[in-house]
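re: that chain from earlier
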Amino acid sequence: MTADADRALLNDIRRIGKEVAGPNADQVDREARFPSETIAALRDAKALSALVPSDFGGADVSLSAIATAAFELARHCGAAGMVFAMHQIQVAVLARHGRGTPWFDSYMTDVVADQRLIASVTSEVGTGGDLGRSIASVEPAGDAQPTVRSFQKQATTVSYGEYADDLLTTLRRGPDAEPGDQVMVLSTRGQAELRQQGTWDPLGMRGTCSPSFIVEARFPAAQILDTPFSRVAAESMVPVSHLLWSHVWLGLATDAFDRAKAFVRAGARQHPGEIPAAARRLSALMTELALLRGEVTSALRAFLESSAQELNTMASAVRFNTLKVAASEQAPKVCLGALNVCGIVGYKNDTEFSVGRHLRDVLSAPLMVTNERIHETNASLLLIAKDV
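^ sequence. v structure.
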């Protein structure tokens, strides 16, 4: 059944990419607006709950299919692909770590029934981009309801936060907890208030709509995941984030390469029997794309073959950190190479060979959990880990 569900999802995703995401991509980018048409189409296809286990009414598709879906969407619209990927990261966390808890089991059925869009609130002003530390904490609500909790958190970015139905937030376990003693809280739209700080006018990935927000929420204590965030991060959030993000970047790079290939072929048709000079540059570019694809696909295979125990090792942390750095540095190389092949028609924004949006979108990749911080983490692990 999983194979059938995978095929059904990917058929829907390819149709949505071609008919909805692609035609709206330039406007989404130009206006820095949320890709609402694409998300509506994904809701209609029940794609937002594709990863939910069948026990709760979901399609129970494989993570491989979700990764391919992110890739396919990103080939048409990088922002739509990234929103889809980020949402599925949250679903993966809840499916893997909330299952068996009454409130979260019930919530999974709501995701299926209502096609709820989930955003994450993991970044925070004052932590220097360290996912493993929080300043804001779970607090008593301060009223006569002992099971009610609250928090206030200033996040540096909350991607599509204004458009999300629910938020999954990292916090210190309590007011007296250490910065690294973290939990995750699921707050619904009616429980949370977001106050935007500043504007959103970035270079690329403009449709993700990711400004800074101050987030406040009141919620029942049952909406706190029992699993400590340190374990959630090692087993799910970090590797799945890097895997799905890298598939988005691969999708952008692949479409940029396809545009460069179309440009070379169009030139060749004008001069039958001759090999255009740009064809040699295209051949070199194909090698760069193959390197990116090889790293992304091998990392996905490694994750799928790893047990929870293996994912909690230093070797695993280094492996998926390395994926993120390698993919985020290689994808811009491919897009820049495509620009080099296409020349001025790739540089212009109004041609069928334009790769400007692709290049601007992938330039966000090294900044999503900055590569400098990841190198610092890996450097520390390499000094002490015997299994790396």
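The two ends are 37 Å apart (CA to CA).
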